[in-house]
């Protein structure tokens, strides 16, 4: 007697693999076609376990690639999203490992993207950027490399400070208050005073 059999699912878009122990899992019809699986196919226990792992790896990767197509994701962020979709930890870890090997997921690129976004919308100094990346559980080496790359261009830092000052100038004209506010944003006193002096000229 077969350990499992492929039957029609509750939806016409899925098949269900039902095992004799009561366990089961669904396979999208499109995936059944690509794997040459058909209604009524019978499986041994070994084949059932192998097929389940293969299907969930394919579906986990598909979901991860969809998320990465929208924007860069950090490894931890992607892990959480896949776990929330119901994939087990081992499947998720294997998925992320293969994506990193193929350079489809990169904490360095994610860190670069986050830094660009922050500096465009709400400029911050390096200490706060570092804390923000740490909060996102970005790999520390990738985070430091992305910060170092951003800092290589002096104009990046200058423009970030300038934009931050211009935001505060709309509310405050007092240089002392601006310096104090921007120091809390992670900029150094020297950086802020230098740009303030240029803006006065």
Description:
The chain is of the alpha+beta class. It has 2 domains: 98 residues, Orthogonal Bundle (Arc Repressor Mutant, subunit A); 94 residues, no CATH class. 65% of the residues lie in helices and 9% in strands. It has 10 helices and 4 strands; from the N terminus they run E-E-E-H-E-H-H-H-H-H-H-H-H-H. A 4-stranded antiparallel β-sheet has the order 3-2-1-4. The radius of gyration is 26 Å and the shape is rod-shaped. 23% of the residues are buried.
Précis, in short:
The protein has 201 residues and is of the alpha+beta class. It has two domains: 4-101, Arc Repressor Mutant, subunit A; 107-200, no CATH class. Helices cover 65% and strands 9% of the residues.
CATH topology of the largest domain: Arc Repressor Mutant, subunit A
CATH architecture of the largest domain: Orthogonal Bundle
CATH superfamily of the largest domain: Winged helix-like DNA-binding domain superfamily/Winged helix DNA-binding domain
Rg value: 26 Å
Q: Quick check: average pLDDT?
A: 92
CATH class of the largest domain: Mainly Alpha
Portion in beta strands: 5-15%
Write the SSE topology:
Blueprint: E1 4-8, E2 14-19, E3 24-28, H1 29-34, E4 42-43, H2 45-70, H3 75-84, H4 89-101, H5 107-121, H6 126-135, H7 140-152, H8 154-169, H9 175-184, H10 189-200
Antiparallel strand pairs: 1-2, 1-4, 2-3
């Amino acid at each position: 007697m077969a350990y499992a059999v492929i039957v029609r699912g509750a939806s016409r878009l899925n098949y269900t693999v039902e095992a004799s122990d009561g366990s089961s899992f669904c396979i999208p019809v499109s995936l059944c076609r690509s794997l040459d699986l058909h209604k009524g196919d019978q499986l041994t226990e070994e084949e059932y376990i192998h097929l389940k792992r293969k299907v969930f790896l394919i579906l986990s990767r598909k979901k991860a690639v969809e998320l990465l197509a929208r924007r860069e994701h950090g490894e931890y962020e992607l892990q959480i999203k896949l776990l929330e979709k119901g994939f087990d930890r081992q499947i998720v870890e294997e998925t992320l490992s293969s994506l990193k090997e193929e350079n489809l997921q990169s904490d360095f690129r994610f860190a670069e993207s986050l830094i660009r976004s922050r500096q465009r919308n709400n400029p911050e100094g390096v200490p706060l950027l570092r804390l923000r990346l740490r909060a996102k559980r970005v790999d520390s080496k990738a985070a430091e490399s992305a910060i170092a790359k951003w800092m290589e261009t002096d104009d990046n830092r200058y423009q970030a400070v300038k934009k931050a000052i211009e935001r505060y100038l709309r509310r405050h004209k007092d240089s002392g208050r601006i310096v104090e506010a921007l120091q809390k944003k992670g900029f150094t006193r020297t950086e802020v005073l230098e740009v303030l002096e240029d803006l006065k000229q």
